[in-house]
Structure formats: C-alpha cells, structure tokens
Amino acid sequence: MSTTQAHKPLSLGAIGGSLRSAVGYAHFVACRMDRRWSLDAGCFSTDGQTNQETAQTYGVVADRTYANWSSLLHAERGRLDAMLILSPTPAHHEMVLACLQAGIPVICEKALAVNSEQAHDILRARDASLGFLAVTYNYSGYPMVRELRRMI
Predict the structure, then answer these.
(1) CB 69 within 8 A of CB 80
(2) CB 142 within 8 A of CB 26
(3) Which residue blocks in the chain are alpha helix, DSSP H?
(4) Helix/strand/coil for 50
(5) Mean pLDDT score of the chain, rounded to an integer?
(6) How far apart are CA 118 and CA 135, in angstroms?
(7) What is the pLDDT averaged over residues 111-125?
(8) How far apart, in whole angstroms, are the C-alpha atoms of residue 25 and residue 15?
(9) What count of other Cβ atoms lies within 10 Å of the Cβ of residue 146?
(10) How many C-beta atoms lie closer than 10 Å to residue 116's C-beta?
C-alpha cells in the first residue's frame, strides 16, 4: 500500500468552481490525482441548479452543499482541512479574509487580489491569524503538462 493510500485524505471545501466555471473541473481533477484530498463540501455557484449539479458530479453530498459561501464557512468550520477558493478574483478578498478569520487554511486560485492594498490586507490577516494561505498555479491537472512531465 502506498503512503498516499495509507492515510485518510485531507478534507477540502470549495467556494466557486462549478461545472460552468473556467477552472472548477480542472481543480476537482487535480485535487484527487494523488488521493491526498477529498472534496467534501462546497458552494460551487450562486445559481441553485448549477450548484446542485456540480455537487452531484463532484460527489459532494446534499447536506454539505450550501446555497452561499458564508453558510458553508459557518457550518464547516472545524470540519475541513482547507478551503479552496475558485470564485472570480474580485470576490477573493472578502472570502479569503473570512476563511482566515475562521481559522480555515486557504488555497486560492490566482490572482489572489485585484490590487496591492487587498493583497496587503490578506497578508496582514494571515499573519495575525497565523493561518495558512497558498495561491495555486494549477497546471498539474492539464493532460499535456502530465505528459510532458512523463517525457522529461
């Protein structure tokens, strides 16, 4: 048994990243590739039907699928190992700050913020909370990148 299969996967929540988004499915696939993450909760879209369809496709159960991201944060606090933020960039500032203040580690799609003032706010919040913040450049989910890695 490999080390990735010997341990329970880390629990991941997602804000944004619906089936209709530009990055959602790529992140879903990439986070499952090494079996170290399990997508367990989310608010994938503000559109109810899209949110439900995405949750069903991603295997997220109905009682952990939320109509809005603040409900997700409130209900899942203490249950998740990290929150993946895949919303449009202008919403990142508020969402990242709320996650850090709730003590939830954050993995945020690029770009982190729309300007340097927001970026500084986020870094101050991360430092004050001693929280974890990562910004992804998630190209590992693209088949061509995986093929190039294999070739090299």
Answers:
(1) no
(2) yes
(3) 3-6, 24-32, 48-58, 69-76, 89-101, 116-129, 143-151
(4) helix
(5) 91
(6) 14
(7) 96
(8) 13
(9) 14
(10) 8
Query: How many residues are given for the chain?
Result: 152
How far is it, in rounded angstroms, from Cα 26 to Cα 94? 24
Q: In b/e form, how buried is each residue of 20-52, taking b as 16+ CB within 10 angstroms?
A: ebebbbbbbebbbeeebbbbbbbbbbeeeeebb
For the stretch 79-100, pLDDT in tens is 999 999 999 999 999 999 999 9
Amino acid at 113: A
Pair of tokens at residue 19: 């089936």
Which residue's structure tokens are 């399990």?
38
Report pTM: 0.85
Name the least confident of 42-46, 50-54, 148-152.
148-152
